[in-house]
Design a protein that fits this description.
The chain has helices at about 5-25, 30-35, 55-70, and strands spanning about 45, 55, 70-85, 90-100, 115-125, 130-140. By secondary structure, the chain is an alpha+beta fold. Strand 3 (about 70-85) and strand 4 (about 90-100) form a beta hairpin. Pfam families: SnoaL_3 (PF13474).
Length: about 160
């Protein structure tokens, strides 16, 4: 890998990290700056269990809704892979998510924390303003890996 390609991969990984950090902080303004603008190719997003969202307005509204209804969220990214080809970059990772929703109506206590595994693909385009998100796709991990299944062999 050339020095320039390595630099691009590091920049893309930095923007990818900034995306998750903005979501954790509930910083909608920062999150919005990381996505492509209106005059560029149409953005898309698939949240786990949601239909495909297309267009900057629809995608950003979904994040505003998530932020408004999530009291706490933290992402631990693992298996991060970055590939850059020309002006396009692909990041795949596993989102190890810890989140909590609003408190029940009759309680001052915070909502319960829930863990979830999501595999994500984030596509970035190089722009004059740096790398910007073009597409995010997250899918829940429903199957256990072979390592998690234990030994069920009959004797």
């Amino acid at each position: 890998m050339t020095g320039a390609a390595r630099t691009d991969a590091e920049r893309v990984e930095g923007v990818n990290t900034a995306f998750y950090e903005a979501l954790e902080r509930g910083d909608f303004e920062e999150l919005a700056t990381l996505w492509l603008g209106d005059g560029e190719p149409q953005v898309s997003c698939v949240h786990p269990g949601w239909p495909v969202l297309t267009g900057r307005g629809e995608v950003l509204r979904s994040y505003a809704l998530i932020m408004a209804n999530t009291d706490y969220i933290q992402f631990f990214l693992t298996d991060v892979q970055v590939a850059v080809t020309g002006g396009t970059a692909l990041v795949t990772c596993t989102e190890n998510i810890l989140s909590g929703g609003p408190a029940p109506d009759d309680s001052d206590e915070p909502g319960p924390l829930v863990g979830q595994l999501v595999v994500a693909t984030n596509v970035f385009l190089r722009t004059p303003d740096g790398w910007k998100l073009w597409s995010h796709h997250g899918s829940p991990v429903l199957a256990e890996s072979e390592d998690d299944e234990g030994d069920d062999t009959a004797v």
